[in-house]
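Mods, move this if it's the wrong board.
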Amino acid sequence: MGITTEPPMRLKYTIPEEVGINSTDLLAIDKIVEDAIRAQAMPGCQVLIAKDGKVIWERGYGFHTYSQAEPVQNGDLYDLASITKIAGSMLGLMNMYETKAIGLYDPLKRYLPGLDTTDKGNLVLRDILIHEAGLKAWIGFYEETLTEPTRSQTYHSQPDDQYCVKVADNMYMNRDYDAKIWQAIAASGLPNKGDYKYSDLGFYYFKKLSKKCPKTHERLPRRAILPSAWTCHYGI
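Not the wrong board. Structure tokens:
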């Protein structure tokens, strides 16, 4: 477990023109962020742009929370989470959209016909992407596996044909547990229909959707899109 690290690289701060970018073009960032804060899509954020080892933009906007108790500062530290949604699923979806393999206003059941008997079949891809499809925020699938006898039925310390999904070192999950995950999602209802509610669940369906278009990720040379350091050290 863990990540591979390399000697630290010190970034240089400079003007955008030094890396071939017009400073005026970056001013649109201010308006985009300010509009998002005004619409309460987020209480604040920090934007940093670096190219060729040179930082050309670094600004903090708004506050850490909607209570506006603590303004965003350039020196703030953040917990990076949900990276695979952006670096994995979204790249695949963007490619499928650009190649017309999917439509943003299509229902899930068009691509996953097995959902036509559930309340998830009519969910529109765009609504899932903007978190207005009504899905629950998340489901703690792992919680029931923390106690016996479910724990020993779900995990083994050594892999075999049945326990072949690696969770961590010396922990392999029963391949059949995948079915329980899908059953739980199907039975989770749509408690937030029409309202904004951040949800992880739609990305489970996006994984299935991408498998329906197997050439999608073949057309995405990951090392041409992401630096090799990302794909190697962070397992993307």
